[in-house]
């Protein structure tokens, strides 16, 4: 049976309180951050050990999940777009080689495709190989040297100015390309082995061009690579270079000397325990022809 009491209210007259009303008292937040319900005797009963929750809590997890979902969607879309992407790479390469002066800026798009790790490995590899082939096709047969202040001050014809602008743009792109590929060759990226193959191909095509010594040293570093096919490729590339040393220009001779010293340093590092393929390039040097002996 429900008990009740009455009390006078000056404005509204009698009010009725029941024991049910006592049970519906709201919880009170204590100084310790815990919610408690006041009891009839004035004490407080623990309702739930809930402390104030930081509104930012869980936001980091949600953001991480959203980012992961976005990456998955990007990869899925990239897989679906493989044929389209390969056609785009081929189109870019054709446009650049057909008119390098006008379309060299398109190399930036090829570089972007190669750097996008969410893309299919075959597409990235195709972009990388295309970059290498383009540089091999359009690079001049000499080292591009930076202009001095005196040279810049001299008035030149429009043709010369156009050539200078092209060479400046070319060497800037080539510098970035080599930095990227050398770094890629020693990484855990799926294109690591492909990048070493590309470096060997570039050295074979452009030993006379800028950064030939850097290229040769990188190839020497792979003479003792764990992968036997990479070891063989590095050895074959250097052997071909050395076999042509007797009629090579000075810039290429400098590359050969630097790389031969790198092989000697490698032998010392390995305590003179090199594989046969690592020594093979040195046997291709025609020292008699180099020094003018019969």
Largest sheet: 3 strands, antiparallel
C-alpha Rg (nearest Å): 36 Å
Strand order of the largest sheet: 3-4-5
Helical segment tally?
14
The structure class reads mainly alpha
Poorly predicted runs: 1-9
Intertermini distance: 128 Å
The share of residues in extended strands comes to 5-15%
| Share of residues in helices | 55-70%
Basic shape: extended
Oligomeric grouping of the chains: single chain
Give, in order, the helices and strands: EEHEEEHHHHHHHHHHHHH
Overall pLDDT: 84
* Count of β-strands: 5
Structure overview:
By secondary structure, the chain is mainly alpha-helical. It is built from 14 helices and 5 strands. The strands form 2 sheets. Strands 3-4-5 form a 3-stranded antiparallel β-sheet, with no helix packed on it. Helix 9 packs parallel to helix 11 and helix 10 packs parallel to helix 12. Residues 1-9 have low confidence and may be disordered.
